[in-house]
Design a protein that fits this description.
The chain is mainly α and 311 residues long. It has one domain. This is Transporter. It is a multi-pass membrane protein. It is found in: Membrane. Its main location: membrane. Pfam families: EamA.
């Protein structure tokens, strides 16, 4: 039963996070992009803080290491990632599926950054090939034309690539911090700090609440991103991370684009292109090459030493 429960939650998480790209695309019709992202995490941060108070004995950061981890999370995992992602998705040439596929490069970039900033990890020749495959996948997806780099949504897709890089970089930096803070507390304060930073960026970009259009569609988009994609999604993620480990949970990044494509097609009439499929394939192959050792160990743990696939 536990196996089916984990599988069910995995699919639910992939569906929630994949369809979030469609919700972002839909909501951007009614909100300035960075203000939209900030409002999302105003709501999600408060919900996560309430949950941290309920679920942990340490709902407040206490040490310098705790606050350092929160700062990294706020700057890179929340503010930089979401500001770049939301601005990138304002381009009509960027479909929900394309954005999801570019973001799925994040585990590949995380592995690459880890080899640079974590001394215990080194990038092997095959690992370098994997990293390059992932980057080539983004180039294929972006349909880069050297003669006209500003056409066809290329700049917007590169902004989303920057979002994935910010998330990957922040993930690696947090691993360098020796903090005992519960993950729920870190996420809650990172969300609130990231939201504050995005409000400041929004003001700097001259975005205004006067440009917000409140109607059923805009409220549903904001509610879905705040409650489902952020609050519920992260709670499922934390549960599966503890049960499955980082290798299996990373695969969510490669299932989410399927649901992003389905949601974009169903609600926004977006049709995925061959470039989307080709870019996704190259990024996934890059991930397999980079994480081949961990994947091999995971398979041996799951199916070797007398274990069976139904254990």
């Amino acid at each position: 039963m536990t196996r089916y429960r984990n599988l069910g939650l995995f699919v639910v998480l992939a569906a929630i996070w994949g369809s979030a790209f469609m919700a972002i695309k839909a909501g951007l019709e009614f909100f300035p992009p960075v203000l939209f992202a900030a409002l999302r995490y105003d709501v999600a941060g408060v919900i996560m803080l309430v949950y941290a108070v309920y679920a942990t004995d340490s709902p407040l950061p206490r040490s310098r290491a705790d606050w350092t981890e929160v700062t990294i999370g706020a700057v890179f995992l929340i503010a930089a990632y979401h500001a770049l992602l939301f601005v990138g998705e304002t381009d009509p040439a960027v479909t929900s599926a394309a954005a999801a596929v570019i973001v799925s490069l994040s585990p590949v970039l995380t592995s690459g950054f880890a080899r640079v900033f974590l001394p215990s990890e080194r990038l092997t020749p095959l690992g370098i090939v994997g990293l390059l495959l992932g980057l080539v996948g983004v180039a294929v997806l972006s349909e880069l034309d050297p003669s006209n780099l500003l056409a066809g949504g290329t700049v917007a897709k590169l902004l989303i690539l920057g979002a994935a890089a910010a998330f990957a970089f922040g993930s690696v930096l947090t691993r360098r911090i020796d903090s005992d803070m519960p993950i729920e507390t870190m996420e809650a304060w990172s969300m609130l700090g990231g939201a504050l930073l995005m409000h400041a960026i929004s003001v700097g970009m001259r975005e205004s609440f006067a440009d917000v259009v409140l109607n059923t569609e805009s409220i549903l988009a904001l509610a879905y991103l705040s409650l489902a994609a952020s609050a519920i999604g992260f709670l499922i993620y934390f549960d599966l991370l503890e049960r499955l480990g980082p290798i299996e949970i990373n695969l969510v990044s490669y299932v989410a684009p399927i649901f992003a494509a389905l949601a974009g097609w169903a609600f926004l009439n977006e049709v995925p292109t061959l470039a989307t499929a080709g870019g996704f394939t190259l990024i996934f192959l890059g991930f397999v090459l980079l994480k081949r050792g961990a994947i091999r160990r995971e398979l041996r743990h799951r199916f070797g030493s007398g274990a069976t696939p139904t254990d």
